[in-house]
From TrEMBL:
GO molecular function: histone deacetylase activity
Pfam families: Hist_deacetyl
Keyword flag Heme: no
Pathway: Ketone degradation; acetoin degradation
Protein name stated in the entry: Acetoin utilization protein AcuC
Organism superkingdom: Bacteria
Keyword ATP-binding carried by entry: no
Gene Ontology biological process terms from the UniProt entry: acetoin catabolic process; epigenetic regulation of gene expression
Similarity remark: Belongs to the histone deacetylase family.
Keyword annotations: Acetoin catabolism
Segments forming domain Histone deacetylase: 22-313
Organism: Streptosporangium roseum (strain ATCC 12428 / DSM 43021 / JCM 3005 / KCTC 9067 / NCIMB 10171 / NRRL 2505 / NI 9100)
Length: 387
């Protein structure tokens, strides 16, 4: 399915490190790349490095005074609470600008490769820092790398970009940065803001001409409900919008084991979402697909397996769910984390779902969430909210 795939990686990307005990531990990305390498996933792609984003590139979405503030914190390690740096979520640390700019540079390299045709798909699993705002850090995110990549694509002349965010947390930063720009369709499927940070992402947040789309799912939603909601909202909107390029954020914190949220997806359900987005990239965006990581705080059992599946799916060579994890990787897990590694790439689930077209059940909270989103935005796109 995929003609050419690029994975952007540099070992220096793990320098984005808020310190011991912080949920966003860089070992999750280190273990992902190690697992993908051991399983031969990286043999099917081109792995390239990246350069840090420049100030001008960061300024495509961030305020210049904010960039300067991050640089000051980076040089001194001292907090700047006015810009969200030095909080429990975003501790200040020396080198924060350089680490954040490199992650953003990796997403820019992915976007550049796809836009120029050097690659059909490109991946930065270290990216997906979707909460950062124009002038403030938020939710473990200092620079908003997917938004910078979208801003760069717009500057190159792209006129229709779709962004789909499957992180358990609302993609508030990307939505806010393009809220009034009809060239950018942002779709976020997330746990209800009534029960989870950042407290935004209601269906009524519709943006310019219905181009901000929010599916707020109830706590406890599992594979079947999540996939039902995804297929009821995402494919019809992408088909109607017909983006020139698809950008996706793949936070895997929707998993049942994630310690920070309350959805109940399995690894197998997440893998089904990756496959669906791959198909939609080819169907609606001519195959042009920029992929980032995102949240995910179960560092051993979930993130490395989920994103190894993601890279494999993007490469066009998906892995069988029952694939065993290599012994060399299991040793690395024990050495780096002292935890017991998973033995295979599956949770043993069969992620089936009933399609929304079969009918709407007003007594079902997931169906009510689906209908709230469809009523809020489908008419803007000439689509019927009813099944």
């Amino acid at each position: 399915m995929s003609r050419s795939v690029r994975v952007v990686w540099d070992d220096a990307l793990i320098a984005y490190d808020f310190g011991p005990g912080h949920p966003l531990a860089p070992v999750r990305v280190e273990l992902t790349m190690a697992l993908a390498r051991e399983l031969g996933v990286l043999d099917a792609v081109e792995v390239t490095g990246c350069a840090p984003a420049t100030d001008d590139e960061l300024a495509l979405v961030h305020k210049r005074d904010y960039i300067e503030a991050v640089k000051r914190v980076s040089a001194t390690g001292r907090p700047d609470l006015a810009h969200g740096l030095g909080t429990d979520d975003n501790p200040a640390f020396a080198g924060v600008h350089e680490a954040s700019a490199l992650i953003t540079g990796a997403s820019l390299a992915a976007a550049r490769a796809v836009w120029t045709g050097e690659a059909e798909h490109a991946v930065n699993v270290a990216g997906g820092l979707h909460h950062a705002m124009a002038a403030a850090a938020s939710g473990f995110c200092v620079y908003n790398d997917p938004a910078v990549a979208i801003g760069w694509l717009l500057a190159q002349g792209a006129s229709r970009i779709a962004y789909v965010d499957v992180d358990v947390h609302h993609g508030d930063g990307v939505q806010a940065l393009f809220y009034d720009d009809p060239r950018v369709l942002t779709i976020s499927l997330h746990e209800s803001p009534r029960t989870l940070f950042p407290g935004t992402g209601f269906p009524e947040e519709r943006g310019a001409e219905g181009t901000a789309v929010n599916v707020a799912l109830p706590a406890g939603c599992g594979d079947s409900g999540w996939l039902r909601a995804f297929h009821a909202v995402v494919p019809p909107l992408l088909r109607e919008f017909a983006p020139e390029i698809l950008v996706t954020q793949h936070g895997c914190d929707s998993h049942a084991l994630d310690p920070l949220a309350h959805l109940m997806l399995s690894l197998d359900g997440q893998r089904a979402a990756y496959a669906a987005l791959h198909e939609l990239a080819h169907e609606t965006a001519g195959g042009r697909w920029v992929v980032t990581g995102g949240g995910g705080y179960e560092l051993v059992q979930v993130v490395p397996r989920a994103w190894t599946h993601l890279i494999a799916e993007v490469s066009g060579h998906p892995l069988a769910p029952a694939t065993a994890t290599p012994e060399a990787w299991r040793r690395l897990v024990r050495e780096r984390t002292r935890q017991t590694p998973p033995l295979s790439l599956t949770d043993g689930r069969d992620p089936e779902f009933s399609d929304f077209s079969a009918g709407y059940d007003p007594a079902d909270p997931i169906d009510r969430a689906i209908m709230a989103t469809r009523k809020a935005v489908f008419p803007f796109h000439g689509l019927d909210p009813l099944p």
